[in-house]
Design a protein that fits this description.
It is built from 13 helices and no strands. It is mostly helical and 343 residues long.
Length: 343
Amino acid sequence: MERSIQTGALLTLAIIAVAAALYWLRPVMLPFILALFIAMGLSRLVSWLMRRLRLPHLLAVACTLLLAGVGLSGVAAITWASVAQLSRNAQAYQAQSRALFDRAVALIPAESLSQLAAGLSENAAGSLGQILLGTTNTVLALLSQSVLVMIFVLFLLLGGQQNGKRADGSVLAEVEDRVQRYLITKAAISGATGLLVGLVLGILGVDLALAFGLFAFLLNFVPSVGSIIATLLPLPIVLLSPDVSPTTAVLAMALPGTVQITLGNVVEPKIMGESLDLHPVAILLALIFWGMLWGIAGALLACPLTAIMKILFARLEPTQDLAELMAGRLPSGWQRSPPGDTP
């Protein structure tokens, strides 16, 4: 009993120390961890090119990075087009926001409250352009780190296993297999989600439809809350667009929500199954923990990072009970014996 208490205390102190180090080193660790997971996902493509097309390792890596560069260029193009569209429509959005606030002011009977609401209307309309500009600048800042991430990816792929295989039963083999299956499956489902959301919003004539499709793709990696945020994200643009009718506004919320629910709650569980072997409560706690450490990027990486921790905990005897709890199973030593067996 005393040994278990000591182990738990030491583990708690170790987690706190590692969390502090990860927070302090996030300018370097975050691009590296992103690159590590991207490289793990792309290594399957490198192995396929080497096995099927008989390409040398260096040429297979070059082709893989070329395809990744094309995809990154597409993301940058969508972001640039969205920024340009925001700048063109900023005045229309401000006028529409002022009109919406004026309608709200007219519904307030008290004169003092009406004056307060009118002041808020002016401030909100004036700061809307700054809010939109700040949002796009944040996205551009994330894209600006992609150069460093791609450099890490290049060296990770060049230094990877040229035969694409590791020793069976090793910790690295289990980590790589589970994370790769998760990333590939999640990327495919997220890509379908983003494509359908962008297509639906584009057909409805909503501004920034491609950008919202991109956000739906990225936020689908955030468990539980990502799909909700992606569904509600177009709401301000829908309300502030003067050409959007009430029927279109309702459809712009309902149809993407249907896509998110169908793919996230019906299709994804059947395809992915229990690939990460994590309980939903453990995933939610991991989302909070990594989100506090690394922000949005930490929330995107919460599931694979926690899956790696669970695999490592399962291989170490002092932390095997913790690994079972993360999987939602009661450790064998905690099972209650039948009443007849009690001495």
